[in-house]
Amino acid sequence: MSDIPIGPTATARQQRLETADGTPLKSALARASRRQKLRALALVAPLALFIIVTFVLPIGQMLLRSVNNTQFSDNMPALVQWFAENPPGIDPDEAAFAALVSDLRNGAAQRTVGSVGTRINYEVPGTRSLFTATARRAADLEPPYREALLEVNSDWAREDIWAAMRGASQAYTANFYLAAVDRKRDLDGNIVQSDPQNRVYVQLFLRTFMLSGVITLICLLLGFPVAHLLATLPLRKSNLLMILVLLPFWTSLLVRTTSWIVLLQGQGVVNNVLVALGVIGDDGRLALMYNQAGTIIAMTHVLLPFMILPLYSVMKTIPPSYARAARSLGATSWTTFRRIYLPQTIPGIGAGSILVFILAMGYYITPALVGGATGQLISNQIAFHMQNSLNWSLAAALAALLLGAVLLLYWVYDRLVGIDNMKLG
Amino acid sequence: MNIRTMLCSTACLALMAGASTAQEVTVLGWGGDYARSQIEAYHKPFTEETGIRVISVDADNPATPLKAMVEAGNVTVDVAVIEYADAVRLCDEGLLEVIDTSILEPAPDGTPAEDDFLPGTLTECMVGTDVFSTIFAYDATRFPDNPPTTIADFFDTDNFPGKRGVRRNAKATLEMALMADGVPAEEVYDLLETQEGVERAFAKLDTIKGDIVWWEAGAQPPQLLADGEVAMTIAWNGRIFNAAVGEGKPFEIVWDGQVYEPEGLAIPVGAPNMEEALQFVAFATRAESLARAAEWISYGPTRRSAAPLVGVFQVDGETEMGPNLPTSEENMTNALASSYEFWVDRDAELNERFNAWLLAN
Amino acid sequence: MALPIYASPLERIWYWTYRVICALIFIFLIAPILVIIPLSFNAEPYFTFTQKMLSLDPEGYSLRWYDRLLTFGMQNPDAPRDAAWWGDVWRNSAWVKAAKNSVIIGFFSTILATVLGTIAALGLSRAEMPFRKPIMAILISPMIVPIIITATGLFFFYSATGLAGSYVGIILAHATLGIPFVIITVTATLMGFDRSLLRAAANLGAGPVRSFFKVQLPLIMPGVISGALFAFVTSFDEVVVVLFVAGHDQQTIPRQMWNGIREQISPSILAVATILVVLSIALLTAVELLRRRSERLRGVSPA
Question: Which of A69, A250, B319, B356 has the fewest CB atoms within 10 Å of its CB?
C-alpha cells in the first residue's frame, strides 16, 4: 500500500474522468447539457417570438400612451419653447402670450387646435372651448397680445390653465395615472383629489373588485357541492354529470349571454314564470337585468366551470378512507368535513378562486350586454375611453392599472398552484 | 372544397384584403331603419347609375369611430353620416375633408345648390341630407286613459309609471331634462352654459335615474318599447315612426320638447376612395335623392326643392310624410333647435361629466 | 358515496338535501343553454313560451327564424328558391358570410396556434428547458390578460402596421389567444409520455424528426387535437378583438350576434345560438372521446 503515491496530484488524476476521445467528462457533459438546453430553447423560440410580436409588444406600445401624450407638445411649438426657457414660477409675460397667439394662429390654419384644447381639457375640464373659440379669432389679434387675449376671454389669465399648459408641454406625463385614480395636481404641483363630480375610477375599481369577489364567492358556494358530488360518485355517473359542467364551458359566451337576456328581461322567461305562478304581480316584475344583478348572475354562470374543474381535480385525489377513519374515531360528519375534508380541498379552492377572480376582473362582453349602468366593470370603461371619448392616454392608464392587478394575481396563482398545473376539462 | 383549394382561396383573400381593385365606396351609417332609408334612396340608385358598388357599414354614432380611424391613421370608410355639431367639431380638428360646394348639383329648377339648401345645413365639411329629431315616445297600450303629452311627463314616474329608455349620451338628454324642468326652449342653452344649469339638468335626471334603461344604438329604443322593457323612451323620431306605421306597433310620439338637428354626409381625411366618395356625396344630395330618402324614414330633407317631391311612406304605401316630419308646423310648438355652437365646444367635457354621473351610484 | 348504514336521521335529511342542491346547481348550469333551443322554433317574435308552444300545438312552432338567417342580407330574398336563390344566399346572406369568415379565421388561426404551440410544448416539457417557469408564464398570459387590453393594444399596433381590417391580422390575434390552450393540453399529455420510447427509437436508428413523427406524435395526438379544438373554439367565440380590429369584410358569427343582441334581438339570434349549441355538443363529444382514447393509450385509467 505504501507505494501508492499520496498527495494532491494523485487525487487529481483519479478524479479526471475522460470520454473516449480524451475530453474531460465534466466539460463534455456541460457541453451536452448546453446543447440540450439550446435545443429545448430552439423549440420554444418560434412561439416565444410570435407571442412577443403579436402580444407583448402591442400591449407595451399601448401602455406607453399612458405616459406619453404629444397632442399639445407637437402642436404648440412656440409656447413649448417659451416654457423650456422660463422655469416654473415665472408668470407668463408678453412673449408667452405672443407665442400662444402664434401657436393658436397656426393651430387654426392647420386644424390642430381642437386636439390641443382636448389635451388641456383633460387637465382642466371645461377649457376646450377656450382654445377653439380663441383660435377662430386669433388671426385678427394685435399686440399687445396679453390684453388682446384677455379681452377675448379673461380665462387666459387663469393660473391653472397656464400650469396645465406647462405640464402638457412635456410629452411625458404621469397625469393620466393620477386621473385614473381620481387625483390631479393643484397649482403648486401637489397631488390632490379631483373634483367630487369627476371622481369615478376609484369607485369603479372597487366595484370591479367587489363584484369579482362576490362572483368568486358564489361560484365557490355553487361549485363546491357539485365538485364534491362529481368526485365521489362512481366514474360512470360522474362522467355523465361532468358533461353538464363541460357543455356550458364549450358553449359560446355570446350564446350564454343571449340565454340570460332571454331569461332575465322584464318580459323574459323567469319573470313570466313568476307572474304565472302568482309569486309577483304583473306590474311588480323583477329588474334582473341591466343592473348589477344581471352582471352577477350571467357572469357566475359563465365562470362556474372554471371553479368546478380545479376543485374536482383536487377532490378526486382525496382518499375517502381519511373521512371514514375520522368517523370511526368518533367525529361527527360535520367535524369530519370541517377538520379532515375541507383542509385537503384548500389547493382546489385556491386555484379555482384565483382563476375565477382573475377572469372576472377583466370581463367585458357580459357586463356590456346585461350590466346596464351600474353593472359596468373597469374593462367597459377602458372600452368607453377607447371608442367613445377617445381619451386614449387615460384608457391606457386604466388598462395598465388593471393589467398590474391581474398580473399580480397571476403571480400569486403561479406561486400557489403553479401555471403548469392548469388543467382544462 | 378540399383543404388545398380552401387554403389557396383564403390566402388570396387575405392578400386582396389590403388593396381591392373593384370600384367601390364604403359608407358608415347609423344602422337600422335609417341606414335602410339611405340604402334604398342613395346606395342602390347610385350603383345603378355609376356601377360603383356601395358598402354599407353601421355604427352607434359614426362620428366616434371616424375620429378614431383618422387619429389612428387607419381610415377604412369613404363617407360617413354624422350630426351637424360633430361635423363642425371634426372639421375644426382637421379630421374631415373640406367639400367644395361646386360639386353639388343644382335644384331641378336650376337654383344653385348653395341657395337651395336650408340655412345651416351646409357647412365646410358636411353636406346636409336630413333633419332628424330627438323626441320621446311611449307604448300606447301602457297608458290607455291618460297618455303623456309633455316632456315633463317623461320625468314623472308617479303619474306615468314604468321604466324609461334614455340615450347614453349628454347631447339632447340635458336639453330635454331642462325643458322638462320648466325651462323655455329659447333659454336652454344660455342656462346650460352655466354650472348651475348643468347641475340642474343632472338633478332632473337624478329623479328618474333608477328607472332608466340606457341605450346606445338608434335601433334599440323601438326594440325596448316592443319588448316591454320600457314604458317610454327617448328616441329618434324616424325610428319610432317606422316601427309604428311600418310595422304597426302601438307607439306614439310626443313632440313637446323635441330637439332637432340636421345631419349629413362627410368625408374623412385619408378616405381610400376619394373620387367615388365625392361622386357619392353629389349623387346622394340631389333633390330627388333626398326626397326619396324621406319616403323611407320620417326625416325632413335639407333642400327646399326636395320638399315638394316627397311622396308617401314607401313601406305602407299610403301615409303622407309631411305631418310626421320634425319640422312640420304642428310638431314645432315647443321645439328646440340643437345648438352646434354649444355642442362643438362642450361635447367632450359634458360627456365626461355625464359619464361620471352615470357611473356614480 | 352511498349513504352509510350508520347514518343518523339528520344525516339522511342532509344527504337528500345535498342531492337536491346539486340538482338545482346542475339545472342552473344547463337550463339557460337548453331553454333557447325550443324558443328558437317560436312562431311568434317573442322570447317566451306562447300558449300554443306550451300545449305542443305544431302551429306554435316554425322554422321561420332559421329561414331568416339565410335571407337576412340577401339581395332578392323573395325570389323563387332555385339555384340562383341559393347562390344569392351563399354570396350575400349576412349570416352565411359571417359563418364563412368564422370558419376561415378559425381554421387558419387553429393551424398556426397548434403547430407553434405543439412545438413549444415539446421544448417546455423537456427537463433541461431553462427559464421554464417565466417562459411558460408569458406563453400562457394571453389567456389571463383581460381581452380588452389585448384588443386595445392590437388596435394601435395594427393601425400602425396596416394589419387592421385584414384577415391576416385577425388570424394572428386569434392564434395568439388560442396558443395557451394548446400549450396547456399538449404539455399535460406530454407528462404522461414515456420518453424511453424516444431513446428506443433512436437506438433503432431513427433521427429526431422521424422518431417525432412516427413515435411521439401519434401518441400525443389526442392532446394535440383537443388543444386544437380549444384553439378553434376560442377563435370561433371571440368578439372583442374582432370589434376593435376587424374591417367590415371580416365580420364573424359572434360579431354578428353582438350586433343582433344590442340592436334587434329577434329569435333569429336564438336560431344561431341553437346551431352553436349543437356545434359545441359535437365538439365536447369529440374532446371527451379523445380524452378517453388518450387515457387508454397511456394506460392511465380505464374509461
Answer: B319
Q: State mean pLDDT over B190-211.
A: 94
Residue A323, in any domain of the structure: yes
- The three three-digit cell numbers of residue A6, written as one number: 499520496
Question: For residue C2, how many other CB atoms are within 10 A of its CB?
Answer: 8
C contact residues 21-80, partner A, Cβ 8 Å cutoff:
21-22, 25-26, 28-30, 32-33, 35-36, 39, 46-49
Say whether the ipTM exceeds 0.85: yes
Mean pLDDT of B299-326: 92
SS3 content of chain A, % helix, strand, coil (to 5): 70, 0, 25
Virtual torsion, Cα C24, C28, C29, C32, nearest 10 deg: 140
Residue B319, number of CB atoms within 10 A of its CB:
18
Print the domain residue range for C261.
101-298
Q: How far apart are CA C171 and CA C154, in angstroms?
A: 12
Beta strands in A330-383 (DSSP E): none
Low-confidence ranges of chain A (pLDDT < 50): 1-3, 5-7, 10
Same domain, B85 and B156: no
ω into A144 cis (within 30 of 0): yes
Predicted local confidence at residue B189, as pLDDT:
96
**Range B56-79 average pLDDT:** 90
B84, with CB counted inside 10 A (0-12, 13-18, 19+), is buried
Interchain contact, C247 vs B13, CB within 8 Å: no
In contact, C139 and A43? CB cutoff 8 Å: no
How many domains in chain B?
Answer: 2
Cα–Cα distance for residue pair A84/A63, rounded to 1 Å? 27
Looking up cell 326594440 gives B223
pLDDT value at residue B3: 45
Q: Which residues of chain C have pLDDT under 50?
A: 301-303
Mean pLDDT of B146-167: 94
β-bridge pairing B251-266 and B126-139: antiparallel
d(CA A349, CA A372): 31
Q: In chain C, whose CA is at the least distance from the CA of A387?
A: C244
Name chain A contacts of B358, Cβ cutoff 8 Å. 373
Residue-range definition of the domain harbouring residue A162: 77-198
Q: What is the pTM of this model?
A: 0.89
Whether residues C156 and A247 touch (CB distance < 8 A) is answered with no
Partner residue opposite C262 with nearest CB, options B6, B55, B217: B217
In B, residues 17-36, which contact C (CB 8 Å cutoff)? Answer: 17-18, 26, 31-32
Model pLDDT, residue B94:
87
Closest residue, chain C, to B223 (C-alpha) = C264
Please state the length of chain B. 361
**CATH code (residue B42):** 3.40.190.10
Scan residues 213-272 of A and list those with Cβ closer than 8 Å to C: 222, 225-226, 229, 232-233, 239, 241, 243-248, 250-263, 265, 267-269, 272
Nearest CA in chain B to C100: B10
Q: How far is C79 from chain A (nearest CA, A)?
A: 31
A115 touching B, CB under 8 A?
Answer: yes
Q: Do A389 and B360 touch (CB under 8 A)?
A: no
Question: Does C230 sit within 8 Å of A251, measured CB to CB?
Answer: no
CA angle A178, A180, A184 (to 5 degrees): 30
DSSP calls for B120-172:
TSEETTEEEEEEEEEEEEEEGGG-SSS---SHHHHT-TTTS-S-EEEESSSTT
If one counts the domains in chain C, the total is 1
Rounded to the nearest angstrom, the minimum Cα separation between B185 and chain C is 31
B14 part of a folded domain: no
The pLDDT, as a whole number, for residue C236 is 93
Chain C residues touching residue A407 (CB < 8 angstroms): 144-145
Same domain, A285 and A324: yes
